[in-house]
Design brief:
The protein has helices spanning 23-28, 52-78, 82-85, 89-101, 135-145, 151-154, 163-177, 193-209, 251-257, 259-270, 282-286, 290-297, and strands spanning 15-17, 43-50, 109-114, 123-128, 184-189, 213-218, 222-225, 229-235, 238-242, 244-247, 275-277, 307-308, 319-323, 333-337, 340-344, 354-357, 363-364, 370-377, 381-389, 399-405. By secondary structure, the chain is an alpha+beta fold. The protein has one domain. Strands 1, 2, 3, 4, 17, 18, 19 and 20 form an eight-stranded mixed sheet that branches. It has a five-stranded antiparallel sheet with strand order 12-16-13-14-15. Strands 6-5-10-11 form a four-stranded parallel sheet, with helices on one face. The protein is globular and about 60 Å long. The relative contact order is 0.20. The model is unreliable at 1-8 (pLDDT under 50).
Length: 407
């Protein structure tokens, strides 16, 4: 979000035309959905050039902020600041237990930033710690698109893109660290096409790691037994147990919308009948209610935007208002004057409490499109990608932009 009186920070000289990935390449990786219907312009026909120093900064800042967020999450549990982060009473027991016993289980998350391309300062916007998307585009599309760079750039161009091997390594550690568990992984979502595509990437990493059985089903097909664990009925009287479950179902959705499931999962997890990924404590990092406390504890960190639970802390009226739980820019509003947003999105998260965050400065191109960098975390900072938006708020209409590191 760039205030109107600030200079535009153009990135046009960084954009290299490559064309969009060919249909045969996308079919090979099961990504045809990205070129169907309204998605046909989703994958940008350019790549954006990043310097080695910038790539290093993305990595170092991500890893430093992750550790600071962990410290803040521990503080929240220790002082039972559940209301601030929106963890309801029915989830508090499991989140606290998970924070103590399952810190090693955090498989993957995605940090969203503004700036970072040399002029606009790198600033954290939020962390999609639990059910992040953009994984197959980052792993497959970026790696393939680099082959379409001009030869002089392609020869020695690099890429910040180790997400798949990092996910695979994490799954290997899960198998090795749980010899009492059979390496069978169940993957579930709520039925959205994008969920299935992201789950296929997770399944690929699990297969590479040595999981012997992998199955993907909608949430409604999973059988939850507080006394025995997780099952799927493959046929009449044919129930298959899974000791590992990766869900594209947010913890806050389970806590608020499926309280019976929340109760069953609390029993299943605390009795160690199954391992659920991502673990329940990631709900703390997923909540933007953590950001005001993170800022208060680390005011001098250059990548943290001023963030507060109270609008009065922004007397100039320049701020972003966001629900503590939300996705794809839903229910986000941007202000230059209090109570008069210059940009605002509707959505499904308007009933949640909100936080207020200083407006960030985005790098732009000559068309006025903004560029939002994202960094994946899987054990450490693991991959970089970008989204391009022709408006002030990055949402479902954004394009995916691949990157390369200058030769």
């Amino acid at each position: 979000m760039v205030p109107l009186n600030q200079a535009v920070l153009l990135v046009d000289n960084r954009l290299i035309e490559t064309g969009r990935p060919p249909a045969r390449f996308l079919r090979k990786h099961g990504l045809e959905w990205f070129i169907k219907g309204e998605n046909e312009d989703y994958l940008a026909p350019e790549m954006i050039q990043v310097s080695r120093d910038e790539a290093r900064a993305f990595k170092e800042v991500t890893e430093a902020i992750y550790e600071k967020m962990l410290a803040t999450a521990r503080h929240i549990v220790q002082h039972q600041l559940w209301h601030q982060v929106g963890v309801p009473a029915n989830a508090q027991k499991l989140v606290a237990w998970s924070m103590q016993h399952e810190q090693h289980l955090h498989l993957v998350g995605r940090f969203d930033f503004a700036g970072g391309l040399g002029k606009a300062p790198l600033k954290l916007l939020e962390f999609n710690a639990d059910t992040c998307s953009l994984m197959p585009e980052t792993v497959h599309v970026q790696a393939g698109q680099i082959d379409n760079l001009p030869r002089k750039l392609r020869k020695n161009a690099g890429q910040f893109n180790s997400l798949l091997p990092k996910l695979t390594k994490h799954f290997e550690q899960l198998i090795q660290g749980n010899p009492d568990k059979f390496p069978a992984l169940l993957l579930s979502g709520l039925g959205h096409p994008e969920d299935w595509i992201n789950l296929e990437l997770i399944a690929l990493a699990a297969k590479n790691a040595g999981f012997e059985e992998i199955m993907t089903v909608e949430l409604e097909r999973v059988i939850f037994s507080p006394d025995e664990g997780l099952f799927v009925e493959k046929g009449p009287d044919n129930f298959v147990r899974f000791d590992f479950w990766y869900k594209m179902v947010p913890w806050e959705f389970i806590a608020y919308e499926e309280p019976e499931l929340m109760e069953m999962l609390t029993s299943i997890i605390t009795n160690k009948l199954a391992i659920v990924i991502n673990p329940a404590w990631t709900m703390l990092l997923q909540s933007k209610g953590l950001l005001p406390l993170l800022y208060e504890q680390n005011k001098n960190h250059p990548a943290l935007l001023k963030t507060s639970l109270h609008q009065v802390d922004f007397p100039t009226g320049h701020f972003a208002r966001k629900p503590i739980f939300g996705r794809t820019g839903d229910n986000v509003a941007l202000f230059y004057q209090a109570n008069r947003p210059f940009a605002e999105n509707d959505g499904d998260y308007g009933d949640f409490p909100v936080i207020y965050q200083a407006l960030a400065q985005f790098d732009k191109d000559e068309d006025g499109d903004i560029y939002q960098p994202s960094v994946f975390w899987s054990g450490d900072a693991s991959a970089l990608c970008f989204r391009r938006q022709d408006d002030h708020i990055v949402d479902d209409d954004a394009e995916f932009v691949s990157h390369f590191i200058e030769p």
